[in-house]
Structure prediction request, 214 residues.
Amino acid sequence: MDVDPGLPIPCPGTVRPQMGTETRKTAKIEMILDYKSVTTDPKVAGRFARRLVDEAARLVPEKEWTVEDVRDVLSFAASGDDAAVPVLDARQYRKRLREEVARAERYKQTFSTMIVGVDGTDGGDEVYSSVLDALIERLRKTDMVFLYKRHLAIIMPHTAAPVLSTLVGRIRALIAAVAATEVEQVLIDATSFPSRDFASGQAFLEWADGKLKD
Prediction:
């Protein structure tokens, strides 16, 4: 029998490699990852998100990635270079705070939150606007600002206590430089988690709720 010289000649006893169980699962997942499935099927969306996390871990191996981390990076990338710090509805604060607490407890990734209270007397609306502008000027695009009636709540991912302390000092100085603002009208409470100040994530959430009601 003639043999095409361009084809490899298998050695006697050679066995073709079989596709393992995990490989078959991966191939099956790849086949169903179409846009419609990813955007309409929660299970497929979850698989897609985990694939993104795996790829992020491969590209930046020194970090232990989560779905929330990937979401923050994508949000930051989509915002554009000139976009402002995201300013969100107050109702989202507690939800995002619970998410950050769960991530901190699971992965030991420190984050910080800051609650700024503005006295409603003597031009309170003007003071409120001035404080908001000052905060946005100093915060990173990955930080999030949440608006309350007389409070501003900020979540700062991947921000430890020493960085937070420096940031609070800078914001105080910036507020003092705003002509329309009396420093006495502005109260800033800031803390980080995990921290020795809080025995649990629930204790931290209760602290935040208490500050919002002050």
Remarks:
- Residues 42-59 form the longest helix (18 residues).
- Residues 38 and 48 are 7 Å apart (CA to CA).
- The radius of gyration is 25 Å.
- The beta strands are 87-89, 111-118, 144-147, 151-156, 186-193.
